[in-house]
Each structure stands twice: as structure tokens, then as C-alpha cells.
Batch of 3 targets.
Target 1
Amino acid sequence: MNVLFTSVGRRVELVRAFRRAYAELELDGRIVGVDVDPLAPALRECDEFFMVPRCDEPGYVQAIAEVCERAAIALLFPLIDPEIPVLARARDGLGTRAMVLPPEAAEITADKLASAELFERIGVPTPRRDPGEFPVFVKPRFGSAGAHTYRAAGEEELSFFLQRVPDPIVEEFLPGPEITTDVLCLDDGEVAAVCSRRRLEVRSGEVSKGVTVHDEAIAGHCVKIGEALNARGPITVQCLLDAAGEPRFTEVNARFAGGAPLGFAAGVESPRWLLAHAAGLAFDLPPLGSYRLGLHMTRYDESFFIGEEERAADASRRL
């Protein structure tokens, strides 16, 4: 039961969570990581790792398929947004069960306008586009990690940002807070768990402080989104609260979120359930929304130290 994390990057906590799940299940398996950077910290936590091309370079899919064959991978998890459509298009030819959306759904989640249109079709509330009143929020139609997103207080600022944001979308500015919901589908389009958390502090687009919350309306909308996307594996659904405290859904990241360890700690044991389900082991799923509320997370950095010879040897492991 070997698993592969692509673009494993800084996701040390995620790798450790899967390692704990293996131990709890008394299940044999290895954790394999790939990245483009031999200094990616989470590679140090993997049992085995390889260097691969960037996901927008020729040879990426072939390299991933080679890793899956060489390391006998049972489950594959993408961890950054740009590679999801690429892996989705190839998911049936990788020689493993790739926990990634169908190709059509992956294209929708990569496109924030298409995502908003999907939400509207299935009755999920979204921010008003081109509201005609300020302040407004400007964001790229295709983007990730909060890059190129701005609040515009008036026409002058809006004009400035429209010239600098690629493929801009203009929508109403919502005061928040922002609620992130981790959604898990063990089988295609069947939601097995949801866990919502409020972002308290964000660093470089990833939550650094958060707290678990639950709202029936948010959970219900997230179930509809997971079903509409025919989702497989973990997806992350983002929403902001309006002035009346009602949710407005903004995007889907079809992968484990950086803050997913908070949900694991609160009782949504996604790594254990994913491994058990794939291995055919019996396990019980709690009712949706059954997790510890008011659990706070605060994060910090830690370091690995790698000599030059080791770094050079790791870099040479590129497929």
C-alpha cells in the first residue's frame, strides 16, 4: 500500500499524518514523494523520493507514471493546483489510483469563473460579480495561493489593478471571515467527511493559525459541490461570510489543503480512512460534522540540514 505525493514541497505534517495512519492500521507501505527541488523539506520525511520535471514541462506525466511503476504506488495525491488538470487528464494511464478529479471537473476548479458558474447552477451562493459599488475584490480567473488578489476602494484603484491582474474577475468585497472546508470522497462523488475551519492568520496563501467550526449550511453546500464534481479523494472548498454572516463560496482546491492537519487532529482521520479503504480494511465513518469544535492550530517552522554532497546526489535523482 505505497502512496505517492506529487510536489510534496513543505507538506511535512501531511507525510507524518500518513505515517501515523500506517502504524495505527498496522499496514505495510512506503511513502514516496516527488518534487522539482531537492531542497523541498517534505522529501526528508518520505521513505523514497525522486526529482521530476515541472508539471508544465514535457516528460512530467511520463516521469510520474515511471515512479508509480517503479515504486508500486497504490494511491497518488497531487498537492499543488497547477498539476491537477495535468494529472486529471492522465489519471487512468498512470498505473495507480490517482486521487484526482475527472478531467472536466479539474478544468472547472482551475477556472474561478467556471467554478462560480457551477456553484450557481447547483444552488450554491457565490459573491456577486461586477457589483457596481465599492469596495470590490479583484482576483485572477486562473490563479493559486492568493496571488494577484486585491481590494479596490474606488475607480482609480480598480483601473490600476485591472491592468495588472491577469484575466481579472471583479466581485463584491466580503468582510469574512474565511471558512475553509476539507471534503473527503473515498468513492467517486460520495462525500464521506467534511471539516470546516476558520482562518485566523494566513502566510503566503496558506493558513498559519486556524480553529475548527461547523455550520450546517456550509457543510450541505460542500456536499453538493463534491457530488457535482464527482470528486475523488480530498478537495478543499473556500467560502467567505457576507455582512449578514451568510456564506458565499469562492473556489475549490482539489487536493489536501495546507491546513488539513487541523482536521486530522479534530477527528477527521482522512489518512487512516483513505488507506483502510484502499486496502479493503473495515472501518467506521462518523456522521458528517462529527469532529472536535473550537480546536485551534498555530504553526511554526522547523529545519532540516543537508550537506552539499547529499544535495547534489538528491538533485541527480531526476527522472
Target 2
Amino acid sequence: MRTSAIPGFGKFNLKKKLRIIKSFSSLSEEDLDLIRKYQKSPDFLDIENNLGPFKIATNFLINGKDYFIPMEIEEPSVIAAASRGAKLIRAGGGFFGKYLSNQMFGQIQILEPKNFREAERKIKKNKGKILKMANETQKELFKLGGGAKDFVLKKIKNYLIFYLIVDPKDALGANMINTMLEKISLYLEKLSKGKVIGRIFSNYGGKRLVFVEGKVPIEKLKREKFSGKETAKRILYFIDLAKKDVFRAVTNNKGIMNGIDAVLVATGNDFRAVEVAVHSFAFRKGKYLPLAEWKIDGDFLKGEIKIPLPVAMVGGTTNTKKAKLAKKILGVKTAQELGVIAASVGLANNLAAVSEIVTRGIQKGHLRLHQEYLRKID
């Protein structure tokens, strides 16, 4: 049976771990040679879930499909947490997720149009021509059903701001959107009779949202002297604190991003772009809030996360050999699927971290593993 639920995977020797991943992901000899290349580095240690350039998280069942998750991060405790959280949620049926939308924005700043109302009227009247001009710069994207789809206008002080709405398909979209903006900016200047100051892609990801949910049988949350029911209650109290106190909310979300960033780095994505999108989303209501929500649902503790994840499968460093290997291990085909995977890892890390903090304590659990790892490096 093809499964990522491998008990004690991190304790296996390197040959056995490699054999499992090779079979699971149908790796080629070229793939294996790349893994062995990293294993020859003096910095590589054959311990825990290390495998070539990555650490491998186990137990992930997402939308009915098993995944081994390659993650690139210096802390083995993050991978252990992801694997443990995934194991708990697997007991409740696994993760279920979907991409809610796939739009990114570019903006053009127009200074002091001669007449704002007339400028807006002329720009809207020429909508078809503007979108066509933009899409002519990205013909392949347009053929795939992506490209410039619409725009909105907004007056801010003495500026008219033009927001181009683009479906970048499996790319992040920054370079293609910047090209579109630079193509149409002179035409907008002519229509508005203003002066274009700047045109640039926006990392705001509020229209590229991912939703993931998963639940844990409460009885599985039993931790040393704490019953599953008591652990679940303590988790809810702790999440409630994050809703009311920015000190807790920031650290809560950092734990989520530990997992998400590690997946993004492994797959060659721009984790900094995702970070700014996610944290701006956390502040969307004018108050910085936790990204994940937990509640009691019958005999289960149910978690949900909805976040912007502007991730890519093509372009930039996603095309390096290492990133391609990570994507092959995942067996991922689209940026939407990769976004759901990353959000699932974030939810798993959140569950593992908060359940540890409110019971055994983070030092006794995950950080102990990290400290052991550092001792072996030294």
C-alpha cells in the first residue's frame, strides 16, 4: 500500500529512507545522484528525517492523497512537529483543502489627472483595448486561460491608482505582471492626461487564498497526565489568548510559517513574498490575529486555516534541479495543489506546537530535539 504513514521513519538509516522515497516518488537515478551529492557535504548528518538537501515530513494525507513533504529548514523539531500534527489529523480523516481564488494584482500610480472623473470614464471605456495590450505581452499565459482579466480604479489623494487583476496560473506572476504594466502605462497616461509615477506588481495576496481544514479525535490528544479532553480545552484557551493578545498571536503565526516557509524554500518559492502576504492578511481586520482557528466538533478538535499563498510551480528558482526534485518527491502538479499542501503543513505545525506548549512544554518536547541536533553538529 502506498502510504506516507511510516512509523519511525526518522530512525531509519539513510539507505532505508532513500529506498522508501525512491519507491514512493518513482525517483530516477539522476534524482538519486542529486540526493547523494548533498549527502557528501561535510554539513550533512545521517540523522532524524534528513535526506539529501531536505528533511522529510511524514503522515500527510491531503484530499485523500498521501504525501511525503520535503522541507528545507535548520530545525529538525519543525519536521517532527509537522509529522506529529499530520499523524493526529490523519486519525480524523486527513486534511481537506482547496484554492479559493487565483488572482494577483499590479498597480499603476497616476499623478494628478486633468479631471479624475473624465480619466476614469476614458479608461473604463477602453477596457478591452487595455486588457488586450496587457495580454499580448504574455501570449502563452493567455492561451492557458490565464492573463489580465479585469482592473479597478481608485482615487487616493491626488493619485488615480489603476489595479490590474491577473490570473498567473502556476507562476507567482511578478515578472509577467510588471511587463504588462510597463506595456500599458503610456496608454493610461495618454487617456488620463496625468503622469505615471510608478508601476509594479503587488505582493498583496488577498485574492489568492487557500482554505484547509482537518480534525483530530479528542482521545488522540492525550498527553502524559493530560486527558485528550483536557488538552483540547487548553488548546482552545491558548488560541483565545492569541485572538486577544498580539504577543501570543505573533508567536502562534510564526510557528505556522515555520512549516510553510520550509516547504516554500524546498520548492524554490519566494518565502519572503508569501510572508508579507500572510502577515498583512493576519492584520486585515485592523488587529493582528491568529491564522488558524480551532473548535470542538463533537468528539473531534477541528482546525481551519485560510491564508493567501501566492506560490509557483514554474519560473525563477522553482526551475532549479533541487526544487524540481522536491516537487517530484511531492508528486505535485499545480501551484494550487502546492498551496494546499503548504497550508496543511502550517496547520499541522500549529496543532503540534500548541498541544505541546499547553501540556509538556516546548522545551521538553520539540526544542529538546533541536538541541540534540545542534550538539551533533558541533
Target 3
Amino acid sequence: MNKVYPPVSDRQRRRHAQWMPPGALDGGVPIGSIIGSVLSSVKRQEQAPGNALIKDWDAVVGKAVAAHTRPGRLVNGDLTVFVDSSVWLSELQRYAQREMLANLQKACGAGTVRKVRLQLDPGR
């Protein structure tokens, strides 16, 4: 069954026009007209320099450290690294944070990672 939606008011059209594709409020747009931009966006994300460190995390930080850490978000050069215990967090902050940053900059380029923030992993 096809659903029947109420007409869209001019106010709703203006409010949603900035984030909706052209024609979406007039009954939709064909998927073929937007699939190219979606696929190119996905391809750009796969090629982002930050994704290289996720694939090679063991090689970049070492197997012992990688067993207790995982990379988080990379935003404006600040990489959040999640650590699985407070003991490891303390040790890394005291003794290995600078070395980790240097290794990350070698692997991804100096401009990609400018700062490493260590924090306890909320997922563990």
C-alpha cells in the first residue's frame, strides 16, 4: 500500500531545504540522481589518512600497546586513543605518549595527527 502524506507547507520547505536534496519535498528524487555523490563520499572516507592508522594500528604503536588500546576519532589533528585500563592509561601518559605521537606522525604524516588524547575506553 502506498502511504499518502499531507502536503508540505512553505515554512517546512524553507526549513528543510538546506539539508534535503533538490526535489525531495516534491515527492522525492530518483536514487540514480544521488547515488554518484554518495559513492564518491564513501570513497573519500576510505582514502582518508586517518584510516591508514586504524588498519596498521599494531605496527604503529607496537603489539603490546595495541593489545590495550584502540584509535578513536581523529578531529582537527587531535586523535583520541582509548585505553582499556587505568593502569595502562597512567603508564602511557607518563612514558609513551610522545613516542606514540611521533610514530603516528611518521605513519600518517606530520599534519594529520598533531595531538594524542588518551582516555579510558567507555566500551570496555
